[in-house]
Amino acid sequence: xxxxxxxVVTAVAVIVPTAxxxxxxxxxxxxxxxxxxxxGGLVSGPARTPDSLAHxxxxxxxxxxxxxxxxxxxxxxxxxxxxLAPAGLVVIGAHxxxxxxxxxxxxxxxxxxxxxxxxxxxxxxxMDFTGIPHCLVFDHTGSCIYRGYPTRAHDVxxxxxxxxxxxxxxxxxxxxxxxxxxxxxxxxxxxQRCAAAFRGTATGTQAAALLKDWKQDRRxxxxxxxxxxxxxxxxxxxxxxxxxxxxxxxxPALAAKVPESMRKQIADVVASIRRLSPESVAAARAExxxxxxxxxxxx
Length: 299
Fold this sequence. Notes:
By secondary structure, this protein is α/β, with parallel strands linked by helices. The chain is 43% helix and 11% strand. The strands form two sheets. It has a six-stranded mixed sheet, with helices on one face. A two-stranded antiparallel ribbon has the order 1-6. Helix 5 packs antiparallel against helix 6 and helix 7 runs antiparallel to helix 9.
């Protein structure tokens, strides 16, 4: 099996409606698709090809170095890129003013932008805007779902990514995550969504086989149990911290105020996580919490 990482969707705390908002009338967007994107010349960031946009949520934002509102919107777009690129979001900044590539790159570097920046890009059927910044959002099917001012696009982008998390795996192989280094619980949930979303396809079949393999893998199942126990431990820690007045740091004096029964409960959970999956991320976090509350955990 080819080595490829099982993509784990970055958690997004924003809850958004599933209905997507369009900047223009829906009929106006019917012929605007990712197939009509001409990328122009690369200035900075990852190189893209038309084929690389398939099955991804794509944002094309037309902007310019001499446009203050454009400059203002770039940090928010960069934040979305950093948060959602692991889940398949592709962001393209299409420069649309007179400037040399060097001048564009200088501004991009100052802004700390890491997504793809191109010049002379066009979108067939989508060039009827009269000002910048102007953004187009395409869902994973390639359909345009929003055209308009970037500040209104945030929830549309997040909703599109959340509604198609498995799309980025189309045509790729899945391999089991190393349960000692990653989040096995999140990986399992994501594989379940892949199996459901791609049922009847090679990717869906592979995800289902992976889940079957995990179910029979004692080591992986132990790491899942450890991850669940760590989640419960975090919840217990949160309740204790709130009862102590939400201090920035748990000092030995504050730790001593925690009832002995609660301290023993935490220590028992830490010991259980340690036994189940000693080299896991969950075990490392459990040890941090034990140290924070000055607990001695039995081997």
